[in-house]
Amino acid sequence: MKFKSTRDSSVSINAKEALLKGISDEGGLFVPEEIPRAGNVENMMEMKYRDLAYYICGKFMTDFEPEELSNCINSAYNDDNFSNPYIAPIRKVSDRYFLELFHGRTSAFKDMALSILPFFIDTSLKTSENYKEILIITATSGDTGKAALEGFHDVENIKIAVFYPEDGVSAIQKLQMQTQVGENVFVLGVKGNFDDCQKAVKDIFANKGFNEAINDKKIQLSSANSINIGRLIPQIVYYFSAYVNMLRYGELKNGEKINIVVPTGNFGNILAAYYAKEMGLPVNKLICASNENNVLTDFINTGIYDKNRELVLTSSPSMDILVSSNLERFIYHMSGNDSSVVASLMDDLNTKGIYNATETIKDNMNFIDAYYATEKEVKNKILNTLLSEKYLIDTHTAVASVVYDKYLKKTNDRTKTVIASTASPYKFASDILDALELNHDDLDDFEVMEKLSSLTNTEIPVNLSSLKGKEIRFDKYSKKEDILNNLEKFLGVNSNA
Ligand SMILES: *Cc1c(COP(=O)(O)O)cnc(C)c1O
Predict the structure, then answer these.
(1) Does the structure show a pLDDT above 70 at 497?
(2) Contacts of 302 (CB under 8 A, 6+ apart)
(3) Mutate to test the pocket of ligand 1, among 29, 99, 103, 109 (most ligand atoms within 8 A of CB)
(4) Could you say which architecture CATH assigns to the domain 90-107+230-463?
(5) Which of 111, 327, 423, 462 has the fewest CB atoms nearer than 10 Å to its CB?
(6) Mean pLDDT for the chain overall
(7) What residues are in contact with ligand 1 under a 6 Å CB criterion?
(8) Whole-prediction pTM
(9) Rounded to an integer, what distance in angstroms lies between the CA atom of residue 420 and that of residue 397?
(10) For a pocket test of ligand 1, which of 194, 396, 424, 426 has the largest count of ligand atoms closer than 8 A to its C-beta?
């Protein structure tokens, strides 16, 4: 299997190289030259999560030796890293199925991919002739940063730097990152929003002087953001796992189609669902759920992508994004793999902040629907789900559940529907208490979690309760213009760039 660039059809590299590079030289993202077929899902009935991961990832990562791949999978999906034996269990709650993706080490769905990405990169590095050391740089809207730090800290020959928006993450998310241990890690708060952080990362990738300076030290830049193909491929696995589990419990008949609702930010998670569908998973509709930053809702409904609007800070900060990186891969596939179309649309986005998709792209998008949820609807949903179903959901999952209501109302489609549940409610405990109309002005972050726990009779994930009393190692905030400077100080290089 080769990987091509979304912006240059002449690029063709194997999985290991794509993993190490993260992004193509001309700025495009790596995509599989064709999406492999997975065969009938009934044949996967005996497979546990790890077997499924081996089967699905193996279809894309054909340059990994069988033993290399199984080592990566066994090191990632085990009892040390996941608190639930199913890894991604499914919970039926009234008329919908929640796919719980938050049982990993940092209590967000990012763990599903970031617990394995470090092993993929480490394996690729060991057999690489071109690269000796990797510097991972990552912009985060809250969850990626911690999950990446947790995965990469103290891994040999890898350094990792994480940039997060000072006011754009929850208190617990901030604490998770500021207390990160490891000699090879660097965490920086940025006076700006997530898009500023993401832009800084892209600019660093494109900065020749900086890249030469680190290449002199035999360091290669890479990314733990979902622009890295090593994030996307493992995310396909849990959609198959969800389907197989539903078949096992008798919730589906062989071949019966499902809908999938995904709370979406950078379009990575829902893109993985699209790949699963293309591989042969029986899927009827993909439903893209946004919060009040509804750029994607507009795009899917009109074909016009327009980032020229104010970013709103919501209670679902991991979705507060105006430039959705992975949408580039989606429009590449919708255009019939036409890199020249993508290059020109991305150029429009960079120069004008807006593009209008081609008719081909619009016609091909008919299996995806999109709606968004307001802050008020999210709050009501959390409250009502707890009161009537005794089920506690986080703010991001609530966005998806509101959107599913809107879809049902509009279409009356009774296809069984899976909702990607992307974070533990405890990461957003104050917002949850707000939704439940409970005052918490006098409570610190830990008391807020304890209140939620006693109220709902659910447990605080240990990785969150154990943050209490941990030493703050990174409390620095940087202007966005100074990000590169700060990074260079951490690395001990000076590119004068
Ligand atoms: C990252 C994240 C999302 C958005 O996922 P994308 O792959 O960026 O679309 C949604 N919810 C939570 C909790 C997240 O951490």
Answers:
(1) no
(2) none
(3) 109
(4) 3-Layer(aba) Sandwich (3.40)
(5) 462
(6) 95
(7) 108-110, 143, 226, 263-269, 318-319, 396, 422-423
(8) 0.95
(9) 7
(10) 396
